[in-house]
Structure formats: structure tokens, C-alpha cells
Design brief:
Elements: E1 3-12, E2 22-28, E3 39-45, E4 50-60, E5 108-114, H1 118-130, H2 135-142, H3 148-156, H4 161-165, H5 181-187, E6 191-195, E7 200-202, E8 208-210, H6 211-225, E9 229-233, H7 237-250, E10 256-259, H8 265-276, E11 282-285, E12 297-303, H9 320-331, E13 334-339, H10 344-351, E14 356-358, E15 367-371, H11 385-395, E16 399-404, E17 413-415, E18 431-432, E19 441-442, E20 462-464, H12 469-479, E21 485-488, E22 496-497, E23 502-507, E24 513-514, E25 520-523, H13 526-530, H14 537-549, E26 557-561, H15 565-573, H16 576-590, E27 597-603, H17 605-613, E28 622-628, E29 634-640, H18 645-661, E30 678-681
Parallel strand pairs: 6-13, 6-14, 9-11, 9-12, 10-11, 12-13, 15-26, 16-23, 16-25, 21-23, 22-24, 25-26
Antiparallel strand pairs: 1-2, 1-4, 3-4, 3-5, 7-8, 17-20, 18-19, 27-29, 27-30, 28-29
Helix pairs in contact: 1-2, 1-9, 3-8, 6-7, 10-16, 17-18
The structure holds a DNA duplex (12 and 12 nucleotides).
Length: 687
DNA sequence: AGCACGCCGACT
DNA sequence: GTCGGCGTGCTC
């Protein structure tokens, strides 16, 4: 077989941390023209030479240095894992020295489609490195599974220029913002935290969307007008629908592509391939959209970055916000975080001067009226008279939104006699009523609680402790006879309601849009939402309330019930950034994220010990634990300054590799595969 | 993950 | 004297 003399550097498709680097292969002459960077390849791998998949990352000249070739069987150098932590910012991929043995040839090139662009590879590598993860895991988010037919069609008919040329781009004036502020961000590739305008707008096609969707669409169109691509990410499909509606008004037909997992596999792959075309596009999608290939990327924008859906549940668990930050630096494009609330993470970057804070030119925010529950409102009544009054008055004009904490009818039951919360006899889950006439059942396992009796006092009667959307609907329906009642929660998804009077009872995050906006918004259950024990409750509640308040028609009252203090003040003055700044100061004094970074290290005690040993001497790092976690494993939490990120991630990755290659746990009879070492950076649930 | 290489118990 | 156990290490 003749070879070209060129070397292909290949990333093997494998989840094993010890294989997360490039392997060198000879390029046979017959593959010379298709073996281009970015193509999928098959290569012989391992002692048996079995064929595995991978991506061709780069083509290089063979090593020119004089190092003695082929040390045959002898221990050839061995991967020296503990390399000095240079923490270099530069080095894209070629960190490991070229292999000097005899190269195996590529076995085949799967297709000439170059699906992994250099830019996405560099991003995947950097994102994996900063979280001690595998580049391959990140690439899985970036490159959808191959669909042969779709790919053939795309290869046969590449970049249809007419595709994007058709249609006019609307002029983007960003009328709500100071002149030039947002156009400047796009033109100068700046970075900004932008406060969205909290009001619904009516589009020319008769649909209502949040003004934020128009702003986001305008940003994308502005990038497109400059001949560059834009990535617009949203947390969920309801937001994506709004954005699509806005883009339909503003963007040239054919310039918009979606990349999200809800599409059928062929559709998803088709849109993904279209992003590879050498034409600027507006790419929209959920958290993984930040990894989409884009021709001449000019902008990455995230709507509502505080939404937990941006936290990637797959290893290496990188938050889309972080991936966007890494990519912005690599691509040197504009970066925008648009939102009503402000996440503490974004506020930190504003404080550093990394992000510029941009607000609408004229303060125009919802009319929020904090309403403490009065003693006169009697026990059980969650709705103060002022809120009743606002609702009654508003119902004469149109729909009223009522935000509640929980779906269902009565999500929590307690024993009538001793008042202790009722728990499932099988799994200890909380018992609740799904509907007024339903039998009590467990909210975790679903088992019906037949013949329940209280383990503490032997009582057999339930008392309804909390109120869900269903019971609120019942209660309000009785109070306003004849008024339409619409329930919107996880089980009953309602996207939009018309302008006719209706009571819309929605759980937080599931609020439908109302044509023309709600005539009043009642934010109930605030007290209960705040009772969740999480470091972020305040921030989360503020985000839920802000997003719901933004659905109100201009001037319509937003009644915040049962909440006072700084949160009520923040919402009514619409000063979310100030709240985030105070929150950040608190986190700083507690040494909690995002004032610094944190990583959890979980696994068998010796492996965790060894991993922590690798961190000694790194400035500013401290360790909590380890403490016993589940099933024979322990967990430690490492806190580190941002500046130590590279070094800590590098050391922990080395420990993960060592744990994976070192002595394998006795695989004797029956014993479960014991816990290997797991590292998770920036887990939002951590503290 | 697979798979090969390598050093200790019961078999023709 | 060998066949074969799976502990250990590597895969361009």
C-alpha cells in the first residue's frame, strides 16, 4: 500500500478518558483527497486492530525531528501524564508529541462531509479541558448522529446561495435602546448583558411574543446584515416558538436554521449540515446550539441565561453560558446575555468589566404592587382583597394570569390529627391529590394510598396542606362565576390565550402568552417558592416573577402576594441587576460560586485522595470533605479561584485518567463495578 | 472498553 | 512437564 507521507491526527470515538487525545495514522494514497480535517473516519485500534470510528482532526507532515523512529516493542516513552501545568492559553490541539512508531494507515473515510469544523473542535477541546472532561463528549453535543440519505443529498447539492439571498432583512433599529448601543455591540464584537424590555408585543402576523424575542431576532438580523452568522439560544421550546415567530417577521426566508433535539433525526442532521454551508445564517436552538458550526460567526446570544435548562445534564456538564463565553473568545464575535432577571454569574462578569451592561433607553417596567397577606385575610386565604379587586377589575377587560407554585390539586397532604406530612408507605414520597375527586397518591411513585394510616398517631384522615393549580382554579372559578378558567402546567401545556376575559392559572415557567398581554397578573405562593432550600431561591424567584410580570399589558397591575423585603422592592423597582450584585457580594463572603468555581470529586476513597493530592500547592484552592457518599464512594468539593481553573482541571483530569488505567477493582463474582473517579465542575446544585 | 502479555495452580 | 487463571497495561 502506498502512503502519502502525510499523517492524519484522529480523535477516537470513545468515552474513555485515557483515549481522549489524538492518535496518528498514515494516510493511504487512495484516501488522500477525501481524508480532510473534519471527516468521520474508521481506524484500526488496539492490539487486535479492530476498527473504531473517529474524526480526522488535522493533517500534518510527519515528524521531522531526528528522534529515533520505532523503538519497537520496548516501553516507548509512555504517556507522561503529570506534565507541568503550563496552563497555556494558546495550544489548540497538538499538545502531545507526535508518535514515532510505525503508523497504521487509516482504514477508511466514512464520507467526505467535513462535519467537525476546526472551530468546533477547538471549542470542544477547550470546553472539555476546563471541566476535566472528554472532547468526544462535547462533540456529541455538537455533531448530531449521521443520516446517510440526508448527507448524500447535502453533498450532492451544497450551499444554495439563493436559499439565503431571497427575502429582505428588516432594518434593525433597536428602538428601545440607546442609539447605537446594540448595533455597536454587533459591529465591534462587544460583550453585553442586556436588560430586555418587559412587555408583550403584537407582531404583524397577529401573534403575540415577548419584546425580548424581537430584540433577540433583531440582534441576529443585524449580524446577518453584516455578513456574519448568529447563534441565538433559548432555554425551551416555548421560547423557541416566540423567537421563530419574531424571526419570521424580520429575517430573510431561508436564513434561519434550528438545531435542537426535538427535531426528527433527519431534520436535525439536515439543519446541522446547512449550518456548515459557507453562507451566514441565523442558528437558533436550545443549550447545545452554542456548539453549532457557523460560517463567520458574528454573534452568540442567550435569552434568560439563569434558566436551569441551560445546565447540560450530560458529561462534562458544561453550562451553555460557559461554553458561550469560551466560544466568544475563540471566535472573537459579539456576545449578548439578554434577560429580565440577571443571573449572579452574568453580574459577576459585568462587575469585572467583561460584560457591558445595557438597559433600555426609557425605564418602562411592569407596575408591580407588593401585597403582604393581611391578618384579616384569614387562614387559608392566599389571596388578599387587593388582589381580588385587581383581578375582578381586570377581568372586565381581558385575561388575568395567576401564577402558582405547584401543579395538581393539593400537592401536600398531612394527617388531620397530628399534622405531620403524609408519606407514601412504599417509598416515603409525599402524598397529594391530583384532582378534587382523586384518591390520595404518592407524587414520587404514583402508588395510591389506600388504607393509609398515620404512623405517628394512627390517624386515617387527610388534611390539605398546600394548594395546587387545580384547587386554585376551583377556588377562583367559584369566586368569579361564569369566567373561563384555563389551567396551564406541565401536564396541560397552553402556549397562548386570546384577549377575551379568562382566569389563567399557571405554574411558574408554564405561563401562556396572552394576546395583547394580561390585564392583571397575580403572583401567588411566593412564600412557598421562597421556602425551597437552595442557595439560589431568591434569584430563581425573582426570575420567575420577572418573566411572569413581563407578560402583563402595559400599565396592568402585577400583584406580588405575601412577599416583602428586598425581593419585593427589587421587583417593583425592576432592579434585578442590583439584587444580583448584592447576591454576588454574599456569595463572595461565603466563598460560594459563582464568586469562585467549585468542582466535586466523587469515587472510591483512595482515588479521591489521590486526586486531591494532585491539587496541593495550587494557589487559592481549598477542599471540603471528603465525606461518604452513596455505596462505598466518597465525595469532596474543591473550591478554586477562576485563575486556577486550567491548573485544577488539568490535575483532576490526570487523576481521572490514572484512576481509569490504574488497578482495576477486583472484578470478582457478583461485585458491582465499583465507583470510578468522577469530576464535575460548576455543578449548579452543588452548594 | 477490548485485548494481549505475564506469572502461579491442577491436569494428560 | 504444560494449559489457563485473570491482574496489569496499552491502544497511533
Amino acid at each position: 500500500m502506498t502512503h502519502t507521507g502525510l499523517v492524519a491526527r484522529v480523535l477516537i470515538d470513545s468515552p474513555l478518558p485515557q483515549l481522549d487525545h489524538l492518535f496518528d495514522y498514515a494516510i493511504p494514497a487512495e484516501l488522500a483527497d477525501v481524508a480532510q480535517p473534519g471527516v468521520r473516519v474508521k481506524v484500526p485500534f488496539g492490539s487486535s486492530g479492530r476498527v473504531v470510528g473517529g474524526y480526522l482532526i488535522e493533517r500534518v507532515e510527519p515528524a521531522t525531528d531526528d528522534a529515533a523512529p520505532a523503538v519497537a516493542g520496548a516501553a516507548a516513552g509512555g504517556a507522561d501524564a503529570g506534565g507541568a501545568g503550563a496552563g497555556g492559553a494558546g495550544a489548540g490541539g497538538g499538545a502531545d508529541p507526535l508518535f514515532h512508531g510505525t503508523l497504521s494507515p487509516l482504514e477508511s473515510v466514512v464520507s467526505p462531509a467535513r462535519v467537525l469544523t476546526g472551530e468546533v473542535w477547538t471549542l470542544a477541546r477547550a470546553v472539555a479541558d476546563r471541566s476535566a472532561g472528554n472532547a468526544g463528549d462535547v462533540i456529541r453535543l455538537a455533531v448530531p448522529p449521521r443520516r446517510v440519505r440526508v448527507e448524500k443529498a447535502w453533498l450532492a447539492q451544497p450551499a444554495d446561495a439563493a436559499d439565503t439571498a431571497g427575502g429582505k432583512a428588516a432594518a434593525c433599529h433597536f428602538a428601545d435602546y440607546p442609539a447605537g448601543a446594540l448595533t455597536g455591540i454587533i459591529a465591534q464584537r462587544g460583550r453585553a448583558a442586556v436588560a430586555a424590555v418587559p412587555r408583550p408585543v403584537l407582531l404583524a402576523d397577529g401573534r403575540t411574543v415577548g419584546q425580548w424575542a424581537l430584540t433577540l431576532a433583531e440582534l441576529g438580523v443585524a449580524a446577518l446584515a453584516a455578513g456574519r452568522s448568529a447563534i441565538l439560544a433559548v432555554p425551551d421550546y416555548r421560547d423557541q416558538d416566540q423567537l421563530q415567530a419574531a424571526l419570521a417577521q424580520l429575517a430573510p426566508a431561508g436564513s434561519v436554521r434550528r438545531v435542537d433535539a426535538r427535531q426528527s433525526d433527519p431534520d436535525r442532521y439536515r439543519d446541522f449540515l446547512a449550518c456548515l454551508d459557507p453562507v451566514p445564517r441565523i442558528i437558533i436552538g436550545n443549550r447545545s446550539a452554542v456548539y453549532a458550526p457557523a460560517h463567520e460567526l458574528g454573534l452568540i446570544a442567550l435569552w434568560d441565561d439563569g434558566d436551569p435548562l441551560y445546565a447540560e445534564p450530560l458529561s462534562p456538564y458544561v453550562h451553555a453560558r460557559d461554553a458561550a463565553l469560551v466560544r466568544q473568545q475563540q471566535a472573537d464575535c459579539a456576545l449578548v446575555f439578554l434577560g429580565h432577571a440577571r443571573s449572579v454569574e452574568v453580574q459577576r462578569l459585568v462587575g469585572l468589566g467583561w460584560l457591558q451592561s445595557i438597559e433600555p433607553a426609557r425605564a418602562q417596567h411592569p407596575r408591580v404592587i407588593p401585597t403582604e397577606l393581611q391578618a384579616t385575610d384569614a387562614r387559608g386565604a392566599r389571596i388578599p382583597s387587593a388582589a381580588w379587586g385587581a383581578a375582578r377589575e381586570a377581568l372586565a377587560r381581558g385575561p388575568v394570569l395567576v401564577q402558582v407554585a405547584s401543579p395538581g390539586y393539593a400537592p401536600v397532604l398531612a394527617c388531620t390529627t397530628c399534622r405531620h406530612a403524609a408519606r407514601c408507605t412504599r417509598c416515603q414520597g409525599p402524598l397529594g391529590l391530583a384532582a378534587a375527586d382523586a384518591a390520595p397518591s404518592c407524587r414520587w411513585c404514583g402508588a395510591l394510598a389506600v388504607g393509609w394510616h398515620c404512623p405517628l398517631c394512627e390517624g386515617t384522615e387527610f388534611r390539605l396542606v398546600t394548594v395546587g393549580s387545580g384547587r386554585t382554579a376551583e377556588e377562583l372559578g367559584r369566586a368569579f362565576p361564569g369566567v373561563r378558567v384555563i389551567v396551564a402546567d406541565g401536564d396541560h401545556i397552553v402556549q397562548r390565550v386570546d384577549a377575551a376575559p379568562a382566569l389563567v392559572i399557571a405554574t411558574r415557567g408554564a405561563e401562556p402568552l396572552a394576546h395583547g398581554g394580561y390585564q392583571a397578573v397575580l403572583l401567588l405562593d411566593g412564600e412557598r417558592m421562597l421556602a425551597r432550600e437552595s442557595l439560589r431561591v431568591g434569584e430563581d424567584c425573582l426570575r420567575w416573577w420577572s418573566n411572569a410580570a413581563a407578560l402583563a399589558a402595559p400599565g396592568a397591575p402585577v400583584m406580588l402576594v405575601g412577599v416583602g423585603g428586598v425581593l419585593a422592592r427589587t421587583l417593583s423597582l425592576w432592579q434585578q441587576p442590583r439584587y444580583a450584585a448584592a447576591e454576588l457580594a454574599d456569595r463572595r463572603s461565603l466563598r460560594f460560586p459563582p464568586a469562585l468555581r467549585a468542582a466535586s470529586v466523587t469515587g472510591a476513597a483512595p482515588a479521591v485522595e489521590a486526586a486531591l493530592d494532585g491539587l496541593t500547592g495550587i494557589d487559592g484552592v481549598d477542599v471540603l470533605g471528603p465525606v461518604g457518599a452513596d455505596e462505598g464512594s466518597v465525595r469532596a468539593i474543591v473550591r478554586l479561584p477562576y485563575a486556577a481553573g486550567d491548573q485544577v482541571a488539568h490535575a483532576l483530569k490526570a487523576a481521572v485518567v490514572r484512576a481509569a488505567t490504574g488497578r482495576r477493582p477486583a472484578k470478582g463474582r457478583g461485585y458491582r463495578p465499583p465507583p470510578t473517579l468522577k469530576v464535575r465542575f460548576d455543578d449548579p446544585e452543588l452548594l
